[in-house]
Amino acid sequence: MSLPTLAERALSGLACKLDELAGGITRVRLSSRTTRLNHMQVALYRVGELLVDTGFARARALSLRALEGQRLAAILLTHHHEDHSGAAAALAARHACPVYLRRPEVRRTEGLDAIKPYRRLWWGEPGEYGPLPMPERIDAGGRALRAVPIPGHSASHTAFLDELSGAVLVGDLYISGGATAVMSHEDPYESIASLRRVADLEPARMLTGHGLSMERPAAALREKAARIEAAAGEILRLHRAGLPEREICRRVFPGGRAKDRFLELLTQGEFSRLNLVRACIRRAP
Predict the structure, then answer these.
(1) How far apart are CA 37 and CA 144, in angstroms?
(2) 1: pLDDT confidence band, cut at 50, 70 and 90?
(3) Within 10 Å of residue 100's Cβ, how many Cβ atoms?
(4) pLDDT of residue 6
């Protein structure tokens, strides 16, 4: 028997955990050995007969098993990135239900037209799932989710407000507090507006695409928006003073340079704090 390849060894250790949350929401958390090393579990949520996100392709079998025997009327994607849409095709086929995505025409953009090696290793490729345009409100089985556009991290990004429980499901709008590394396509100014838009909903709870649950999140959302806005202001000030982008990055983010540089190299420049600097300059209002 041949020895397993490095990729096969790295991708073993898939795990799935189900949590019954308040308000009748079921959270399914998926991870692999690789994603646990990066503290990047992925979460999908069943709200009555509605499923928000599907997990990543490498864990497709776990998503199918976790939802076995459940009735799904529709799949709603917070955005089209492969860690959230990876099992959409399989789940839609198994449950004979539609998949909805805001701006379905962009589903092969933002790196999905030619997935970089690190993304293929971590998540796998989602394949084609034929999404329909996202309605403003989705009703099924006595539950209703209101779709709220939250572009910035992704052009397709959408939050869902559960009208029964007051919970808002936000995908990757909030991963951590503060101004952080971003992907090369992101728009920080749109992210600022989206954070404030969700905060203005005054949700009872926030559930994120990577498993975080936060009660009364409005203040945290506004604080993150303010910190990104402050960083953007400083970036533009230094840019107007004639400093090069990497020097601006060093001054605005003096800590964690080694980790950030490692992530930049690992992702072939697709994810870094330098991208935030560039985006603030490129997309300045």
Answers:
(1) 36
(2) very low
(3) 19
(4) 44
Instruction: Tell me, yes or no, whether 260 lies in a domain.
Output: no
Residue range 59-66: mean pLDDT, rounded:
95
Residue 62 near residue 42, CB atoms below 8 Å: no
Q: Classify residue 268: in a domain, yes or no.
A: no
Does residue 44 fall inside a structural domain? yes
Residue 7 has pLDDT above 60, yes or no: no
pLDDT for res 193: 98
DSSP assignment letter at 96: T
User: C-alpha angle with apex 227: 218 to 34, nearest 5 degrees?
Assistant: 85
**Which domain covers residue 208, as residue numbers?**
6-219
Convert the pLDDT of each residue in 127-143 to its tens digit. 899 999 999 999 998 99
Q: Which residue type occupies 212? A: L
Task: Judge whether 194 lies within some domain.
Answer: yes
Q: What is the CATH number of the domain that holds 31?
A: 3.60.15.10
According to DSSP H, which parts of the chain are helical? Answer: 6-10, 33-37, 60-66, 82-85, 88-95, 117-122, 188-199, 218-240, 245-252, 257-266, 273-282
The Cα 244–Cα 269 span in angstroms is 17
CA dihedral 115, 118, 119, 121 (to 10 degrees): 110
Predicted model pTM: 0.93
From residue 266, give the alpha-carbon distance in Å to each of 33, 68, 82, 176, 271. Answer: 17, 36, 18, 21, 9
Tokens matching residue 269? 């420049």
Quickly count: other Cβ atoms within 10 Å of residue 222's Cβ.
15
- As a residue count, the chain comes to 285
Number of domains forming the structure of the chain: 1
Tens digit of pLDDT for each residue in 66-110? 999 999 999 999 999 999 999 999 999 999 999 999 999 999 999
